[in-house]
Amino acid sequence: MDGLLPTDLRRDFPYLDQELNGHPLAYLDSGATAQRPIAVLDAERAYLEHANAAVHRGASTLVGTSTTAFEEARETVARFVGAGSREIVWASNATDAINMVALGMADASAGIGGPETEIFRLGAGDEIVVTEAEHHADLIPWQRLAAKTGATLRFIPVNDHGTWSIDDAASVIGPRTRLVAFGHVSNVTGFLAPAAEVVELAHRHDALVMLDACQSVPHRPVDFAELGVDFAAFSAHKMLGPTGIGVLYGREHLLDALPPARTGGSTITTVTMESASFLPAPQRFEAGTQPVSQAIALAEAVRYLDGLGMQRVHAHEEALAGLLVDETSRVAGVRLVGPPPGSPRAALVSVDVPGVHAHDVGQFLDSQGIAVRVGHHCAQPLHRRLGLRATTRASAYVYTTADEVRRFAAALAEVRGFFGVGA
């Protein structure tokens, strides 16, 4: 692991040092929310104890100190994803960030804004393209946008593994496409999307690209400028940070043109009783009181990950991904969802145990001290395409050990016998 040893890292995560139902906790639900190291907890606490003040409001020394810390956090996060500081907008989570773009495009399509919003305006005959594998957060906002504007929502189909290819994308993306939205990494299958190729294809047709990067930014080096995406979203709580804050990335000139989805204090230059003029990005999108302490904590999470080295994080998770697939594939009577063994994937696996509901599988694993995710993982269309109502998902992160993966597989092997299913 080139020095990245989970057993050494675990001392930084107090949460992991506990028992679950009489067993040492094996936390395999980082795809839903990651645990926070002491450094992140301390950074937020220190800010609240010594620097808490309203940012961008007033001219006092305390406000200046707080605002400086707030904007330095933005710069730290921007560098982490290859962006400029004006290209990073704080949101309440990634879902909120995606909705900012969808709602802004709906306003532009309704005639709000000047000629600079023309690139966002949709109408009958225009097409929005998503994939059949999308998280609901990257599907429902585009459904609503299509309904509001008269545009057509189309989707890139998945195969029996729940994956898709650039050829599949090319069969759907075309001259009428105005926006392509897709997940960088599937939260169900671990599939790695051909992001750069999709961006090139979409831009060839003058379409915008929105990337759901929730399952990629925490786990591998990601550079949005290098990928060429127009917009992207990710959440702090999946990358060792706090809840209550997410990030919208947008190319600077696009953010400056996009109508803000929410309006109010701190977003404006001039207000009359009849109209308002808005600041440039990112402030034009950050109405009201901001998640200041959360931004401070997210920046500390970024520094923690930078300290580990994202290449080393990626290498560690690649090894765990291989182990997850190998161990799970050996369990009789279990269906592994997603790319077949030997294919690239993120460090997560979703499984189906025929004859045993995913919730029951999860409860049995819980009784063995293993925390996983069960359900449709906010991806009902994908599960429906695969003939499933729910799956059980195990997801790893920097603090996950090989022993925990083996414990998961060993417990999974006991599920059918425990419920009296099969021979």
UniProtKB/TrEMBL annotation:
Protein name: Cysteine desulfurase
Name of the encoding gene: sufS
Classification lineage: Bacteria, Bacillati, Actinomycetota, Actinomycetes, Micrococcales
Domain Aminotransferase class V: 27-408
Pfam family, one: Aminotran_5
TM region(s), chain numbering: none
Keyword Transferase tagged: yes
Functional summary from the UniProt entry: Catalyzes the removal of elemental sulfur and selenium atoms from L-cysteine, L-cystine, L-selenocysteine, and L-selenocystine to produce L-alanine.
Family: Belongs to the class-V pyridoxal-phosphate-dependent aminotransferase family. Csd subfamily.
CDD domains: SufS_like (cd06453)
Record's keyword terms, sorted: Pyridoxal phosphate, Transferase
Domain of life the protein comes from: Bacteria
